[in-house]
Amino acid sequence: MTRYHGAYAEWRQDPEGFWTEAAKAIDWDVPPAQILATAEAPSGRWFEGAQCNTCYNCVDRHVRAGHGARAAIRYDSPVTGTKDVYSYDRLLAEVSALASVLRARGVGRGDRVLIYMPMVPEALVAMLASARLGAVHSVVFGGFSAEELALRIDDAKPAAIVSASCGIEPARIVAYKPLLDAALDRAAHDVPHCLILQRERQRCDLLAGRDEDYATVVGAALAAGETTDCVPVAATDPLYILYTSGTTGRPKGVVRDNGGHMVALRWSMEHHYGLEPGETFWAASDVGWVVGHSYICYGPLLHGCATVLYEGKPTGTPDAGAFWRVIAEHEVAALFTAPTALRAIRKVDPDGLAIAPHDLSGFRTLFLAGERSDATTVAWAREKLGRPVVDHWWQTETGWPMTGNPVGLGLLPVRPGAAGVPMPGYDIRVLDDAGSEVPPGTLGNIVCKLPLPPAGFTGLWGAKERYHETYFAEFPGYYATSDAGFRDAEGYVHIMARTDDVINVAGHRLSTGSIEEAISSHPDVAECAVVGRADDLKGQVPLGFVVLKDGVARDAATLGRELVALVRDRVGPVAAFRETLCVTRLPKTRSGKILRGTMQKLADGEEVRVPPALEEPQILDEIRSALRAHLDKPAHA
Ligand code: COA
Ligand code: AMP
User: Fold this and answer.
1) Which pick of 85, 312, 338, 364 has the fewest CB atoms within 10 Å?
2) How many angstroms separate the CA atoms of 207 and 358, rounded?
3) Which residues pair with 232 in a beta bridge?
């Protein structure tokens, strides 16, 4: 029997009582007296007046409770052939030493620390050291360009940067340091201190006066026995800024607090993911995404679990059995990944033959999120693994699942196509464009009645108006998720599509606006529109429709290569931009709005009704025939 219905009803009846109880699992310097304040942020401010330290709760308290010898980080890096285990004792020593180093360079409470790292333990150490000092970290994903990095540097204005010489992708080494140098050259903000982790695969030059060798300075602090106490901060103080894609090319700096974040994440580890302290949890994501923040770093450590830090891919490092090997070797109790990773595995190993050699007896649940789960992939995983496969839905803004299937409270029936039921804390509604609720089964805008539960974002860094405009203006009293979907008769939530110009490529959230900005900067391009075309492996891939300037004639293949290079340079390889389609004009409304949704449907071969606002309906036929010619090319046949 599941305890979900009771827990949800308990929360509905007394939300503050529910979170007061959950907050008891956290160690506070000043315990919460006030639970919820809604005056300042419409999304809610939890535990105002309380004081705490996130690093203390993730590391120190487990050591003080006598669990110092337990594994905290299980690093597994097939791309370098390295494995390492950090006990909680070792993690405390390293975090404390790095915190001393940063403090000696002037980093203190409220200062920003930018972290631009591959999937190495030092990335987690840096996040925790920042939290220890009461500073605010901002982790930037390695697949972004120098330009995107510069945007984030200028927005967050960090006092220090922790980075590495390189990241290692299966087919190439990604030299991080030149990207960092280029970003720092481009940025208006000056960063006085950069700590650089030299990796053996490719070392880098250090700039005298600014750059220091991470291992040398942290090693010296460790040898000298330097430690740093945790700095108590207000529960409502920011723990981190994580930039995410929105409608425009300018990224949004989602701000997360300390207190509410800890309370919700710890609750979710026990009740949603069903983990016990001491067990191993693996989120196969990247520290640069919210999944990496919440469930590679903070969630598992807050709960006293071991977290797997995997520097590799689902396939090719070295084969499609990599995930199953890691689960067996590190005794993983639950894995969290994106459906695209499973599609990549199934493509190479459709019969699941690579599973059999591994002992998965300790493995209980596979969790999927990041993009819509397709029924075929879910059915394949369930059959081959013989374990529940649980879809759940959340966003950078919420920090933890809005809907899911709470294994810890007792699994509910799994409904294919649905992303589960609302978690306690979330009152999920589906509204039509006028703001009225629609009946079950009807597609609409998915919103969450305010306030958001603990861990919900408390703002956008330096962008108060944008925060209000983007999330709370359209449906007063609700947080607008920008996802469309429906609730079924049993109350399960089905997530179908984004309602804005965000696309989801291999589980990565990308702004079509930023790709369009890059394409538009090409001297031959008059205008362009980027849409997400359905893709069997990545879910969606960007497709660029390009109109050339009058009188310009270009060889399509050459222009395509130039635009790919431009997008890689301006946005980064993570955009996975490869396809350009030259057209003579774009479909627009009379007021000049480009009909991207219509173009996307055409690209996916869907039936399209001519939108009444379309100025010249025959343009759709032109787009159709251009698409046909494009998709008939050998690469798509
Ligand atoms: N640093 C630098 N470059 C990176 C990077 C990183 N951390 N991560 C990806 N890239 C690069 C890749 O090397 C690739 O470059 P290329 O065009 O030169 O080959 C490009 O960005 C696109 O990467 P990706 O979309 O990940 O494609 P892929 O072919 O390398 O891998 C999958 C495809 C499906 C295996 C992979 O995307 C995956 O495992 N996805 C899981 C999804 C996930 O982690 N989602 C996070 C939310 S849960
Ligand atoms: P991010 O903020 O990068 O985590 O991306 C959040 C977006 O990913 C959501 O708004 C959805 O569009 C999509 N998403 C995440 N999880 C799911 C899911 N389980 N099903 C469908 N879409 C999802």
Assistant:
1) 85
2) 47
3) none
- For atom 21 of ligand 2, the residue with the nearest CA is 372
In words, the CATH class of domain 506-631 is alpha beta
Cβ 206 vs Cβ 217: under 8 Å? no
* Ligand 1 interacting residues, C-beta cut-off 6 A: 142-143, 167, 169, 174, 285-286, 289, 291, 313-314, 338, 340-341, 344, 370, 505-508, 573-574, 576
Task: Extract long-range pairs of 89-95: CB within 8 Å, 24+ residues apart.
Answer: 89/63, 91/59, 91/125, 91/128, 92/59, 92/60, 92/63, 92/68, 93/222, 93/227, 94/121, 94/125, 94/218, 94/222, 95/55, 95/59, 95/125, 95/128, 95/129, 95/132
Residue burial 179-217, b: 16+ Cβ < 10 Å; e: rest: bbbbbbeebeeebebbbbbbbeebebebeeeebbebeeb
Rounded distance between C-alpha atoms, residue 601 and residue 543, angstroms: 12
**Tens-digit pLDDT profile for residues 155-188:** 999 999 999 999 999 999 999 999 999 999 999 9
Give the Cβ contact number of residue 293 at 10 Å.
Answer: 26
C-beta of 369 in contact with ligand 2 (< 6 A): yes
CB burial of residue 172 (10 Å; 0-12, 13-18, 19+): exposed
The β-bridge relationship of strands 306-310 and 280-283 is parallel
Q: What is the pLDDT of residues 72-129, one digit of tens each?
A: 999 999 999 999 999 999 999 999 999 999 999 999 999 999 999 999 999 999 999 9
Please report which helix (H) or strand (E) contains residue 84, including its range: strand 82-87
Query: Structural domain boundaries of the chain?
Result: 506-631
In angstroms, what CA-CA distances link 296 with 79, 299, 300, 498, 511?
A: 19, 7, 7, 26, 24
Query: Coil, strand or helix: which one is 12?
Result: helix
